[in-house]
Amino acid sequence: MGGQLSCSVPVYFSFSxxxxxxxxxxxxxxxxxxxxxxLAVLVxxxxxxxxxxxxxxxxxxxxKADVYKTPHSYIAAYHYLQCTADSMPVPxxxxxxxxxxxQYYAKAQxxxxxxxxxxxxKFHSTATFVCPVAPTTLRSAAVAQERAPWPRAEKAPLExxxxxxxxxxVLAVDKQQYTMRVGAGMRLTELLPAATKAGMSAQIGxxxxxxxxxxxxxxSTSAHGSGDRTTSSLADALLEVTWVDGRGRVHVxxxxxxxxxxxxxxxxxxGVVTELLxxxxxxxxxxxxxxxxxxxxxxxxxxxxxxxxxxxxIHWRPDAGIFKAFLIKQAPKGARATPGVDMTVLPPIxxxxxxxxxxxxxxxxxxxxxxxxxxxxxxLSDGSLQATWASVKRKRVANVTAPTNx
Length: 406
What we know:
Elements: E1 14-19, E2 38-43, E3 47-48, E4 69-70, E5 73-75, E6 81-84, H1 94-109, E7 114-119, E8 136-137, E9 158-163, E10 170-174, E11 179-183, H2 188-197, H3 215-221, E12 238-244, E13 250-253, H4 260-263, E14 272-279, E15 285-294, H5 298-306, E16 311-317, E17 322-330, E18 341-343, H6 356-363, E19 380-381, E20 390-392, E21 395-397, E22 400-403
Parallel strand pairs: 3-19, 7-9
Antiparallel strand pairs: 1-2, 4-5, 5-6, 6-8, 10-11, 11-14, 12-13, 12-14, 15-17, 15-22, 16-17, 18-20, 20-21
């Protein structure tokens, strides 16, 4: 993801959000259950020790069949929460989503309360209201949020979780207009290879750097890339959004439409996002430039850097009086990309000696064989001042050119 600079990091930590949610009309739900499914993710960025440490390969253990989903539950990334539901349909199209929502709307109209959420296994959240019912807390770090108990005199609600895991396909490609229509459940790890295969690039600065986020979640929480008064979010690259309202009706909205603002950053209150039409670009390369400066005149320095590129990530160490700026910009036409570059998301973890214990826990304690890069942002080292945004054949580099989708 060479062109997708993001993760504004105050010293050691970074955070972003993801949301996939649904809304059943006001008259059919209790007020406490009209909350959107806000999936807030806090990603700890480990401060890795000296770069001279000897790399260690952490062996991959055999995982359980699916540690994120059971017949009646789905589990958050990092195993913080386990959500339960009476029903967990897994639609593959907008039509199927509309039919499911319409079915439960009809039940609500007939007097059966319904609590409906739209999410997926491995969702990014420690907030408990992502679940149809207050969930099981698997880790003490999870945020505790109590709900009012359902009055015993009332009929208990049906707890429904629509899982968007299979809304992750490329639906249409226009190579003349450089557009792609994709499912809202598609993750960035799926979008960028698909774009490369179609002969296109994502717009520089438009996407967050967390690989595991879905496009629907990014849109609903306005999770952002990096850009000063230019392309800096998914909404900047959107031509259309297809969504389903709480009655099961399908809508198509464009940036000029008034409801578009309720979809972009609207935390899912308006409806379930199912498809996105993205404006891509012809294939491009992205140039990474790394600059280290003292912070005495930090704002003046940043303003000077913005004249080089509006897409900047800052690592600032006020205790050391130093900041490091990572700039990305479209490489000049004809510029050669360096082979073997890993840029923006995460340099390979197995070259970080002190990550071995974490990787062992990931594969054994949790029985999880996922790639950890699904969850983490760029790896910081030496308190961030020795951090790099790219590596070439596992060696950290400060300045390099790579394909934008890398």
